């Protein structure tokens, strides 16, 4: 098996907000560094930073403060976040937004007097979300991408990383094994420092919003290295994903929160508004409450033709809706639905993954030289993420990782040699499905998404979770008996579908395992058999890791390093 | 609607091949009520042709990865409903024009981004992260021009639709010039004169013949053609003033 080998100073895996910001900051810290970015799709075009609609939370307005942003983040995260990570996020967001505007060229929306506009976003006590219309992500990633193009970095586009390779001498990371999607050639890139920034993305649910390329590859690789993964039960569901039926990639894509905020109604299959039966705030209740309410209607069988509920906006006046929600109305129209004047079917949809690799505020992991940033890292958001803290997280920590990696490189004369047995094992692992035929990989993916939706989804209990774990085990075995046909590796999407599915099944097992041991309801995690939130003072976070091929789950106590439950950093008014 | 008929099928010609050439291959695909062109391509890969190469990411018209030529026109396939484009149940799907082919429906976007870079499409600010954010009123005429050009998703559709690119592969093309127009109207940028000089030279905006294929095809409703006209006027004024 021929293996191309190359060497670089810094290897960045992923080109979303975290990956590109890391590249820019590493180059600024030390312009002579050799920087390589490997990405599954095209530079800046895959991943979810692009898809940010809402905006970027930052305490820049007069009257707002980092303390207030921090308290909102901790309260939103139900006291589970790592407080040092949350603090660094809120504090650094201030300089990061100025960097995005003044140095990188993002042109965010302004107030009539020319000052930066901050919009209101759910769960926050101050209007602090900076945005560019409702396409903030396009503005951020396009500006990052064009700056990255000027750096002269090595871009390995359409290169899928297969495994992280430790050093032969046990000193830390050595690099990553990857495959060139277009040619099918294998490549090992040796590096002094490696950043894992592939983005999480819970695409193992029947309904999901993230970009289609995201399949938990990063977390699956981290799991294989034996790293601790935290908060893995914490999957954020958005209440209104578009429901367009089976066999269409439109299904699951998000319809924005503002529809409910503006007075939109949710109607069940019998045409009745049902939200008031669950919460006095009705459609304006929080994301998790609305998601569970819709899920309950679905379980009771009061559904629309495709099995969801309807969102209805026409009572607000179709012209008004068309004007206020231009982007959403146009997207629905392109998909064949009339959002302004008719009914559109919606379902809760898996949106963001709070869980991830345990890191410190320098993005370091337990393996020297391996850094993690963005949605692959855990602990910033705890049990729930505030809208607007996602892109803040990726760009803040991507930048920090870039600086720390540059500093590390200056202390290292050369990269460590790889453990060749791990390279061999990862190559064999990637080639496993070749030569076998068997079930249709797409059908297996559908079954995974159904299992996770039914048993490890919006509402959980011990029996369902046990059933979920059993079906995941069975599915894993079936996948291993299924193949990708003869060994043709060049642009073989069906082989990649197989590899994607393997990552998804492995991380689904971790999600189910973490959900089993958290016996209280917190934020995004709801247990019907433990509907109350436990004592906040004794809060723990879950940690799962793989030991000798088996998952081990445990609780670690939350350290209230900055503020304890019952306290606040904000003076009472 | 045809999609409601369970037995309805689409006859789909898909271009299969690589840089050395290729041909259309015929497939029959079930027609559904809710179905985009990307869904048709996906169905073929999942059920008939597991080795079909194509590209997509976000599914909602934000990443610009899935653009292809559909019945002869460049389009974003994730947001093109089959019922909007199928003629008598017939679709042809090919990679984007004016770019090299990697394989099947995947075009090589490298020249497109190379030109973005060559046009100096990256912002150059005079302030740093330690400075306050510039006050720019939303009703300033320049800010309005910049806003109108800003939401490009770099999908390459305008580039594929451009006759001038077809005739002169050296031409920067509408997307890169649209970016230059947005920056030209961004008074925070300090390199506007240099940039104008750069696009006034070889491969620059004078190669545009105002056919406006870009504006007609832009899925985001942007007007690169208008922006290029604005750049030509700005170049003319700068030449009179002697700043380029």
From TrEMBL, chain A:
SUPFAM superfamilies recorded: FAD/NAD(P)-binding domain (SSF51905), Succinate dehydrogenase/fumarate reductase flavoprotein C-terminal domain (SSF46977), Succinate dehydrogenase/fumarate reductase flavoprotein, catalytic domain (SSF56425)
UniProt-listed InterPro entries: FAD-dep_OxRdtase_2_FAD-bd (IPR003953), FAD/NAD-bd_sf (IPR036188), Fum_R/Succ_DH_flav-like_C_sf (IPR037099), Fum_Rdtase/Succ_DH_flav-like_C (IPR015939), SdhA/FrdA/AprA (IPR030664), Succ_DH/fumarate_Rdtase_cat_sf (IPR027477)
Domain FAD-dependent oxidoreductase 2 FAD-binding: 9-391
Domain Fumarate reductase/succinate dehydrogenase flavoprotein-like C-terminal: 445-565
Keywords linked to the UniProt accession: FAD, Flavoprotein, Oxidoreductase
Enzyme active site: 287 (proton acceptor)
Record-given protein name: FAD-binding protein
Domain of life the protein comes from: Bacteria
GO molecular function: oxidoreductase activity
Pfam families xref list: FAD_binding_2, Succ_DH_flav_C
Cofactors required: FAD
TrEMBL record, chain B:
Molecular function (Gene Ontology), one example: metal ion binding
Location of the 4Fe-4S ferredoxin-type domain: 142-170
E.C. no: 1.3.5.1
Superkingdom of origin: Bacteria
Enzyme category, top tier: oxidoreductase
GO terms of biological process kind: respiratory electron transport chain; tricarboxylic acid cycle
Pfam family name, one: Fer4_17
Cofactor: [2Fe-2S] cluster; [3Fe-4S] cluster; [4Fe-4S] cluster
SUPFAM superfamilies: 2Fe-2S ferredoxin-like, alpha-helical ferredoxin
InterPro entries registered for this protein in UniProt: 2Fe-2S_ferredoxin-like_sf, 2Fe2S_fd_BS, 4Fe4S_Fe-S-bd, Beta-grasp_dom_sf, Helical_ferredxn, SDH/FRD_Iron-Sulfur, Succ_DH/fum_Rdtase_Fe-S, Succ_DH/fum_Rdtase_N
Keywords: 2Fe-2S, 4Fe-4S, Iron, Iron-sulfur, Metal-binding, Oxidoreductase
The keyword Glycosyltransferase belongs to this UniProt entry's keyword annotation: no
Gene3D superfamilies registered for this protein in UniProt: 3.10.20.30, Alpha-helical ferredoxin
Family from the record: Belongs to the succinate dehydrogenase/fumarate reductase iron-sulfur protein family.
Protein name: succinate dehydrogenase
Native organism: Marivibrio halodurans
